[in-house]
Fold each of these.
Amino acid sequence: RRLYLDTHALVCLLEANGFTTQQSEVIVSALVKIMSTNLDMIYKDMVTKVQQEIALQQVMSHIGGVKKDMIILEKSEFSALRSENEKIKLELQQIKKQVMDEITKVRADNKLNLNLEKSRVKELHAQQDRALTQTDRKIDTEVADLKTMLESHKLDNIKYLAGSVFTCLTVALGFYRLWI
């Protein structure tokens, strides 16, 4: 914290440029005081290496705590996602069973109707075949729609999982950025 300045050389320089000895000494004395005050203010704002190491250790411990919290949060989010996925799977299985029961009922009804119609009128045989084909197409369309819906739910779950992971990562990086 010392100011290294050749005051005698500065006084001589000022005298060489037209100042008196007394004026030169007063100017140099004022400059030395100003520079000392400025250096004191600068050193007040500076941190020692020990203080810096302590602050770094504190920041690192906070980061470690945040990492632990993030791991706990991540595990709880994953378990919540798993339970939600299990619920959705059960719901889909129930819906699939209901659809299959309905399909079975529709097919049974259609077969019964076809047998009755065949026995009554043979001329309507061609129309009944078309009706059966249309019903099968509707059933296939419904099954395809259900498969599409199942895939959509799977994709939504994957998106939700990816969003959660990226959100956690963003929060972790945000904390990391704040502390560094």
Note: The longest helix spans residues 49-120.
Amino acid sequence: MKFLLVFDFDHTIIDENSDTWIVKCAPDRKLPNGLRNSYQPGHWTEYMGRVFVYLGDNGVKEDEMKRTMTTIPFTAGMIDLLGFIGENKELFDCIIVSDSNTVFIDWILKAADFHDVFDEVFTNPATFSSSGYLTVQNFHAHHCAKCPKNLCKRKVLKEFLDKQLERGISYTQIVYIGDGGNDLCPVMFLRKNDIAMPRQGYTLEKKISQLAQDLSPVQCSVVVWSSASDIMSYLKLLIKE
């Protein structure tokens, strides 16, 4: 009996967007208008690539970025929740599927000593070039019309589950914890027995309730959370059952 916990990262594990937080490193803590306005819907990763070039051009180094990123606050109750999951790893497999990048997530989890809680992290690969610039790439290619170009979280989840099945691992239930519009696609992949946990007041919750109003509700159960202690209470109930 094992549960799979799937976490988004921005506005779920941390209480901010890691990609917009890095702007604190920019001169005057803001981006020039031309750069800010260059974002095109569905092409966030390319936009962040341009942001990282701007930071590099302005002499922002890796250690300054790291210092800034590790000041991002965790969502209320999240530190206790991740501690609880870490103590019960025999019951929970735990993955992150995020539109952030490997460098940011790595820094934040390691600084808080939560790296071992997660079995795998699926996010856009990032690395520092020889000239000290942070570069980022799309996580994968996909054909899902609903998702941004760099990442379809449903595809990630499905491929992970298939790979686990090949290893002989299947899950009693999947619990999907997220907040954003790009979390809807994987939530619609969940079965009746699974649980979607959208963050209260965020896009995912609004999209799920809109579907219910349109009489095409998601198949899985829906449990809304506002603090990670709500998630912890719910997981404690699940493992008691």
Note: The chain has a mean pLDDT of 95.
Amino acid sequence: TGALPAPIFYLNQTFPWEGDSVLLQCSVFSQATATRVVFCNDGEEISSQRGLEEKFTYNYVHEVSWGSSGNYSCAYEIKQSNNWVNGSQLSPAKYLSVTGSRSSSGGGEEPTRTGLDMSLIIWAARCTLVLLLLVSAPIITFMLEKRGLSEPAGLEETRVGSIRIVGGS
């Protein structure tokens, strides 16, 4: 950890499958150009990049393996004019949890789906229910007409009765 302020860290996926790739992104906002950007897992360096002038966001694509679960973060360094290296604090960590392997054919439980997967499932269920409702309405109407229940019971009697009243006066 250093004296410079922490960068902003972004992790595009927190529950990937084994074999997936996740995007780690480190945004450095400093008056001096970062000379090196470091990506960490549980505080240990896993990758670094040389800093470039006028570049503020650095990307690292990390292929996920079973041992990839952990707290990910990033930091940066700035080399001073006297060749002293000044480091930043680590960014606030984001936890990455590997949910399992897509190709495993074992009899274990499937991991709980979250985020985008769950919202797609809910969207599909809603669409299915609306479609079922739209298809069933004409079928129910047809069945009621076929049985002669197109008009509510007692409506004909009311009409006939009202005609008699009008006709009688």
Note: The helical segments are 116-146, 155-168.
Amino acid sequence: YFFKLPSDSFKHLGWCDIEEHDVRGNQLRCPRVREGPSEEELFFRREEHTLKKRKQVTDTEKWEKRLQENWENCAELNLSFQDLGDLYQVENFKRILRRLIRVEKLWLVDNSLTDLSAIRLPRCRELNVNKNHFRSFKQLPKIPQIQHLSLAENNIMTLSGISDFRHTPLESLILKRNPCEFQERYRQLVFSSLPNLKMLDGIPKLPEDCSPPDIRVFYKMCTIL
């Protein structure tokens, strides 16, 4: 006999009575999923064939899922607001990032990311990692083809490591609302480290951004005779 389960989350499922048990489907109020028998227990039961069959199905499902994801051929991807609160989630997230070998535009906004230095994105031209927890340029992924990089609202204290992008085609950089923005001669230091940079924080490169510091101070002096 089949009975409908009373719980709302299981109301579209059916319950089949199991022999040698007194529990009926209509008596089940809070079903629990229990862990299956271990490999040793199955061996002593002489049911190890069950484990092999189960592993084979699991491996097949994993392979099918990998083919369906097809991260390797992804060109544009938005993985923002993922709420990565568990270590397993973070590791699985990084596993996906390591497969993005052809991605060109990537958004990773507000993911509580702290270190992606082990990740390489060889074709990425546009990367948005706003509202994360990066503290240094050294914690960013390897992005040799980057053209537009947005790092607003992180926790980057100094400009140390920014020269690593000197040999990339980086044209636009956003560092708004980072502590390094309050550093003295901030814009001059950034443009001197990145000669190919054309725009910083949404403002194009200005003549005074290239001025030597002594000349800049001289123009602000007022001599009274």
Note: The chain has one domain: 15-209.
